[in-house]
Amino acid sequence: MMGSRQKLAVEGALPSSTMGSPCRRYSTDIRSACQRQVEQLAEQLPIVAAWIVYQDQNQGTRQSFVHYRQKPSCSYPDLSYLDSEVWLVDSLPALKLSEVAREGSLTAFVCPLGEYSSNPEYLLLWTYEPLSALQQEWAEQQAQFLFNYIAICRECCRQQAEIQLLEQVIQRTEHQLRNPLAMIALYAENLCLGLPAGSMQEQAMNIRETVNELSTSLTDLLYCGQQVKLRVAPHDLRTLLAESIKGVQPWIEEKKLHIRYPDKPVTLAVDRSQLKHVFDNLLSNAVYFSPQGATVTCHWQVFRHEVLVEVSDQGPGLSEEDLKQVFTPFYSRRLGGTGLGLAIAKKIILDHQGSLWVQNLPEGGAQFSFSLPRLRT
């Protein structure tokens, strides 16, 4: 008897070869969550057996997880009729525990996980005594948790599939665009060298500069979809910031801005070129949105385990929509902006095991902050 019950308990388990892709990993995560859920239900409720039946979207089949609680004084009835699901009708409310069958002192409760469909998903409890109202409410809460977890796993799987597709599109785009751009840049350069000074040469120079901008945008786009290996070494944040300030110095002088940043150096183990890219982007945005004669402030605080860096301006600040979308690729409020700068900056900080966020200041303006660990793992 125990052998057959153990077989039921592992029925539908994923083979080890399915652990490769993210979607298969999520399938395994759902199954692990089901196992924890029925074990917790068995500990808290007078349960003979508990089923969780759900649709495995990766395999395209329904999966069931069965857990039996050992009760020597309890004989197991024939439960085969429950497999027919004739009791599961659309009148049963979703995420509500309903009594559906009785056999002697045993009672069956079912809680549909979502709306009724041709392939219903549900939690089924076979108890050896009636459940109190408090116990039913607790079981419904566990079903709600499981429903939310399954939904999150499926959404993660869907997003991962979209990301993989986007990565493939980006890689194909690079091969299709990189060589033509290089040829256009070469011809534009030859025209710039061969044409006499005048409008024709200026047009050739505009073509060359436009191609360079397109090439840079393509590189940024590719960076968003790649896992870059960090070249980490000790670097002074103040030195990197000073280099970024130098890069926008003509713009700073044009707007008569004041740049304030600490005199005290801070050394961290970072990828120099990538972190400078973060400073370049945050400082460029601060300068762009600052009014004439304003002040851009860069500040950092050193804590025991991390360093907090803040870049603030005295501009108009961000709208509610901006605060939600500012790190979303291709979202930009800058005229002619690609919307990739902040997305790439956030990816760089995440690659460094840090965090990047933004907020509006009470006195006006926006402040971008990021934290970096002092000791990397």
Report on this model:
The protein is α+β, with helices and mostly antiparallel strands and 377 residues long. The chain has three domains: 2-160, Beta-Lactamase (2-Layer Sandwich), CATH 3.30.450.240; 161-224; 232-373, Heat Shock Protein 90 (2-Layer Sandwich), CATH 3.30.565. The protein is built from nine helices and twelve strands. The strands form three sheets. The protein has a five-stranded antiparallel sheet. Strands 7-9-10-12-11 form a five-stranded mixed sheet. Mean pLDDT is 79; it is low at 1-20.
How do the strands and helices of this protein lay out in sequence?
Blueprint: H1 2-9, H2 22-44, E1 47-56, E2 61-68, E3 98-103, E4 106-112, E5 122-127, H3 133-194, H4 199-224, E6 232-236, H5 237-247, H6 249-255, E7 258-260, E8 267-271, H7 272-289, E9 295-302, E10 306-312, H8 320-325, H9 341-351, E11 355-360, E12 366-373
Parallel strand pairs: 7-9
Antiparallel strand pairs: 1-2, 1-5, 3-4, 4-5, 6-8, 9-10, 10-12, 11-12
Helix pairs in contact: 2-3, 3-4, 5-7, 7-9
